[in-house]
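Appendix C. Worked example: FANCE protein
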Amino acid sequence: PALSLMSHPLCHPQLEGLCSFLQLSTCPEPFLVRFCSWLLALSPDLSYTSAAILAEQLFLRRVLSLTQPPSRHLMAALTSFCSKYSHPFCRVLVAAVLQEPGEGAEQTKLMCELVEECLEPHSVQLVLSQVLEVPLSEKLLPVLQAVLGRQEVLPPELLDLLVLTLCQQAPAFATSLSYAKLVTAVLTVYQSQVS
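Step 2, the predicted output written as structure tokens:
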């Protein structure tokens, strides 16, 4: 019954209350995989807001607390949810990871893997714009590299912002090999658009 409710419009407190009742943020990961499969089968699709709430309830705590690579169950749940609701997922999860202080090595690796293998092109652009909204750090360079690895066509304004950011940050990364690789990748992938 709870699952059928999710295919109908619910106000935010109702959906958050339902998530709390089902203990989705702490449910066992094998159940999480099954739950995501059920979500993908719902008709009509979840609204953007409902998908964002579920992304937060299902994954935020788990992703932010990673200290080792995600289990295969968590990765399966993440990729299945991303396959249908990548935009709200990025708005919730990527934003939270970017704002998290510290190195966040496992979170960065996870973001790179999702960018490389799961996200739709428009969501890859969203990740890039989110990264460019925060101060660039060594932790974020692999994410930018993963975005460039997709070789997506970028809107001119987003490409301009990327180039401008890299130029402005050059002094801070004078000794960074990752930064040098990133600049080389930009010049290679977008050579016809970068002067």
